[in-house]
Amino acid sequence: MSEKPFGKSEKGAALLTVLLLVAVLAILAAHGIDRIAGAAKLTSNARELAQAQAYMVAAENLGMETAQQITAASPGRTTNLGDWNGRPNRVPVEGGIITASISDGGNCFNINGLVRQEQNIFTARQAGLDQFVRLMGLLDVPQGDAIDIAASVADWLDSDTIAAPGGAEDEYYLQSERAYRTANSLIVDISELRAVKGVDTTIYARLAPWICALPIAELSPVNVNTLKPEQSLLLEILSENPVNSVEIRQFLGRRPETGFSSVGDFWSRPVPARFGADSEVQRQVKVATRWFRLDLTVEMQSALIEEQALVDAGLQPARLVQRRRGDTL
Question: Where are the coiled-coil regions (predicted)?
């Protein structure tokens, strides 16, 4: 018995089925290729990120070594000779580039200087509060707000639970929608200030370029040999008496190239002599640098790492004591 030949409609259906199968296979093949390409890209990105992280560690080590060399070059006196302070350096490396700068990490307002430490107890420091209020005044923060913010930051840092006038302790923060408590310890990163009563986005933006959080409960160790004229505000807030901002900038601009020989040499000059600074503030001023700030960036084809770090050159050897890093792909 002979087989019945396919009709035209049946041949068409078979052809359509074959074409559909080919289309599905093509889609699956394309999807597989995409998956393989994606996996390869992820592997490449991970490899680049690992390489960038290795470069960052090398840059940190070089920064620590540089800080040590700067302090060793002129023991007891750190100046801007050599144009090292804040100058960016770009170093090509295999697959990317490293950008690094080192600057005086003590030429900022140390927010942790609002308290003093005795054993494990932190108590408010009036000189730090006064300087912080002056700083905010120069940054156009209303005086009433500035006084309350300074008190609130001191309450955030100090060990007791009694709020200072205008300040805030646990009782205030526990009433927030997302309740929390004060740190009762030194601030590690200045972004922590955003949690303090009175520090809104606008005020934080004004303060951030001038504030640092050194890991010590001491007044800002301003080095008058490395302080730049554009940073004169940090010198201005040390004065108990009204001072002329322009005069202070000019004073820093006319500073001896080799810097002031001693703290006494600085305070004997006519401009700072008019500050009316007491002995605690006079000891605050330095002519040598202990803290160095590193600003590091590693750029690869598909990876970017940015870091700010703090080096303590008072230790032997110099040591990295703070790090804030962001990794992106």
Answer: none
For the chain, the average pLDDT equals 90
| pLDDT higher than threshold 70 for residue 275 | yes
Q: Which residues contact 89 (CB under 8 A, 6 or more apart)?
A: 99, 100, 101
Cis peptide before 165 (omega within 30 of 0): no
Pair 100, 177 in one domain: no
Tell me: do 270 and 308 sit in the same domain.
no
Domain assignment of residue 25, yes or no: no
> Nearest CA to 67 among 258, 259, 311, 321?
311
Output the domain CATH number for residue 66. Answer: 3.30.1300
For residue 128, tell me if it sits in a domain: yes
Strands 304-312 vs 291-300: parallel, antiparallel or unpaired:
antiparallel
Q: How far apart are the first and last CA of the chain?
A: 71
The tally of domains found in the chain comes to 2
pLDDT at 122: 98
Q: Are residues 98 and 118 in the same domain?
A: no
Whether residue 267 sits in one domain with residue 135: yes
Do 328 and 78 touch, CB atoms closer than 8 A? no
Are residues 80 and 210 located together in one domain of the fold? no
Residue 274 falls inside a structural domain: yes
**Structural domain that includes position 153:** 109-284
Q: How far is CA 141 from CA 114, 164, 273, 296, in A?
A: 18, 20, 27, 32
Tell whether the model's pLDDT for residue 47 goes beyond 90. Answer: no
- We report the CATH number of the domain holding residue 241 as 1.10.40.60
In this predicted model, what pLDDT tens digit does every residue of 170-182 receive, in sequence order? 999 999 889 999 9
Give residue for tokens 């004169």: 232
For the stretch 129-138, pLDDT in tens is 999 999 999 9
The answer, yes or no, to whether residue 1 has pLDDT greater than 90, is no
What is the spatial distance between Cα 171 and Cα 305, in angstroms, rounded to a whole number?
40
Taking the C-alpha atoms of residue 241 and residue 248, their distance in angstroms, rounded to an integer, is 13
Span 63-101, pLDDT tens digits: 999 999 999 998 899 999 999 999 999 999 998 999 999
